[in-house]
Please model this.
Amino acid sequence: MSESVLKTQELSRQFGKEWAVRDLNLEIPKGSVFGLLGPNGAGKSTTIQMIMGLLPATKGTAYVLGMDPAQEGCAVRQRVGYVPEIYGFYEWMKVEQLIALVAAYHKTWNWKVCETLRGEFRLDNQQKVGELSKGMRAKLALLLALSFEPEMLILDEPTGGLDPAARRNFIETILAHYQESGKTILVSSHLLNEFSGLLDYVAFIREGKLELASRLYDLHQRMKRARLIFKESVPPILKARNVINVKMNGREAVVTCSDFNPDETPNELAQSTGAENVIVEEMSLEDIFVDLVGS
Model:
C-alpha cells in the first residue's frame, strides 16, 4: 500500500447507550478512490463527520493528511473538499452570494474552475438557494467542494437527488477528471454498484462495524458464484469448501465461493457435490456485499 492520506484507529462514536461507529480501522492510500459502503444507518455519515472534525469521537483517533481533525478541524476543512449528505446552506442567499462567501474562506479558490462547473451544472447566479431543487443543491455543493482544488475529496451520498443523467455525468466526468489529478477521493454510499467502476478500494460497514476492507480487484477475483447443475434434484446437504451462501432450485444450486481459485475450485465443487456441470459467474459489488454481510 502506498502512502496513506487518511487513517483511523479504533475510531468510535457513541450516542447515549448506542454505538453508531465502533472500533473502525481504515487506511486510505494516496491517489486512490475509496468506497465506504453499507446500508442506510450503518454509520457512514457519522464516520465522515468525525474525519472532518465536525463531530468528536468517543474514543479512537483519525489522521487526515497528517492532521488530527479533533484538534485541527479548520485546517482539515481548508484542504479537504466535503459534500455532505444534508446541505447546510443559507436559504435566503443567491447562488453567486453563497459562492462568494465560501470562496472568501479559501486562499486556493479557482474562479476558472468555479465558472466552468457552474456553466456545466446550469446554476443560475441570481436564483435563491432556497428555490433550488434537490438535484441542483447537490450540484452547488459539489461546485463549492471542487472549486478550491482540495487535496482530497470526501463525498457523503453525493448522488442523492440527482436524476440518472446527472448521476452518470457526475460519476463518469467530474469524478474521473478529479481522479486523473492523482488526488484522493472517499465516497460514502448505500448504492454499491453505482460507483463500482471508479473504486480502487472498498470497505463494507454494517451497524457501525467494519465487515471487510479490500482492494476491489482482489475482492472480485476471490468472490465468485458457481451454478451447480445436477442430473436429478439437488442433494439436501452440499459439502464444499469456502462456500458462504447456497440457493437451491430444482436441479440447480447457486453457491457463493469466498476464496475462488479458477484452476481448482470448479473441479472441487463438482467432485465434492456430485454436480454434473459447474458454471462460474461474476458477481456485482452489491451481490458480494449481500452474500458477505447479509441483506
User: Anything to note?
Assistant: The chain is about 30% helix and 30% strand. The chain has a mean pLDDT of 89.
